[in-house]
Design brief:
It contains three helices and no strands. It is mostly helical. The protein has one domain (2-15, 24-57).
């Protein structure tokens, strides 16, 4: 799972604002959103939702 967090950090840094990027980065689906979920009572559910949205947006 640790690899995915590195990947999830890399993708927005690399592709944010690019029109024809390899990945779609919609609002609410970023590494910053993962960090915002930290410390909340439902952190696991929040992280799962963020990752699921990313996968759906990018048809993965």
């Amino acid at each position: 799972m640790c690899f995915f967090y590195y990947f999830f950090k890399y993708v927005p840094d690399r592709y944010k604002g690019q029109r024809f990027a390899e990945f779609t980065l919609n609002e609410g689906v970023s590494f910053d959103d993962l960090i915002a979920a930290k410390g909340k009572p439902n952190v696991g559910e929040g992280v799962d939702k963020i990752i699921q949205k990313f996968l759906e947006y990018n048809r993965l």
